[in-house]
Structure formats: C-alpha cells, structure tokens
C-alpha cells in the first residue's frame, strides 16, 4: 500500500470525467484525505459526508436503521449519494454514489466481526463488496487503511481507471464482490418507484458534457415536443445570460397519472433529432 501507488491511482480517478458524492460511516477515513490531497480533487469530489453518530445517520436516511453495518446499509447510502450527485454534478457528466459502512477495531473489545461493506452506484449498475477482517491482527489505523484502499480501488473500477492497489488483505480475508447491471427500463422503473430522483439523457455532442455549472431547465409534458418549447428555452437562455439547456419530463405529476416506461421512452426519442438541430441553430 505504497503512497506513490495510491497517489497514482487517485490521479487517474481525478483525470476521469466521473463526479462523485461519498457517504462514509465507521471507517475508510483515510480515503477522503487521499482524494482531497491530490490535485484535481474538485474534478471528482462533489461532496463528502460522514454520518458518524446515530442521529446523523437517522437524518441522512430519514428513518431509524435496524442495523448500521450491513451491505443493505451501504447500498442505501450509495443510492442516496448517487441521487445527490445527480443534483450537484455538471451537466452531462457521469456520476457515482459511494456508500461505505464499517465496524472496525475500537477502544473496547468487540463481540462481532471486524468488517466493512462498500457500494458504488452508477447510472446503469451497482458494485458491491464486503470484507471480514481477522480480529486482533491490526490496529484501528491499520484497518482503516485497508478499508480506505478497498474504497479507492472500487472507485477506480467504477471510474473505469486501470491500476491495482495492494490492500493488505491476507489470503483468508477474501472480499465478496458482485455487480448488478440495469437496463434502461429498470432505471425508469426505479425512477417511477421513487428510488431515483431523475434519469439523465445527454444529447450534447460534447464528450463529457459541459463545464457550465448552471442548468437552464424547461419542464413540461412534451406531448409532443414542438417549436414553442424550443423558443421558450432560447428566450430563457438569453434572459439568464447563458447556461446549459435542459428539458425536464415529469414522470410523476400531481394532477395526472404517472407516465409508463414506454411513454417516457417515446417522449425522450423526440429529442434525439430535434435537439441536435436546435443546438446547431444556436451556434
């Protein structure tokens, strides 16, 4: 777990277009220091929250958890972080929600295992990992470093960055890892069910979105999309002095039945040809 190797992989993460929100509890604290101490951290890290106390975790989740250290908890934290990243990220950039929860060595003996759980949520997949550490083998600081290396390695994989860190795990400490991919239809079902705050369809011709921090959003049913919508957004851009143009389809409407997956897909298709022509008109 050499510092040079850690720095190299963190630099690669910062060079990727992915922007992340990180929620940690119970360990992996060194990972935040590594991410923030290497130049370029603002390219990656949108927000980091450490809900360490019971009250802080309850406020983050909006409920009282039955168990603080579990794979389900890490998964829920990652989903919350992902939804937060959707709101904070620059337009068109891929985002990542990171959830970590651990039960590591402490000042008093523990009856249960020393273990940690990781979850990484991206738009179309989720990576999960859990490790049970050998008791009394390491200090708290050493266990934190092991879990921090695991978190950085998982982020690198999610950011499609090559490179491997030696986490310091023994042969008996085998990580349990899984990856679940989602189809577009499954993502939209998650949106309709309230698990996702939005699904982004980037139609910009730019490789990784825009550096514009401000989004100019035109909401509507777009049934159908017409020239009046495009004119409205043109005027809004002029009034606001520029920004990144976005159209928002409301899948859930207080006055109307929710849209079906098929209806959402049909309405999104309208933008594929129209928006490219509209963007060329703005040049």
UniProtKB/TrEMBL annotation:
InterPro entries: Cyt_trans-like
GO molecular function, one term: ATP hydrolysis activity
Domain of life of the source: Eukaryota
Pfam families: CTP_transf_like
Coiled coil: none
Domain spans labelled Cytidyltransferase-like: 217-273
Protein name: Cytidyltransferase-like domain
Organism: Arabidopsis thaliana x Arabidopsis arenosa
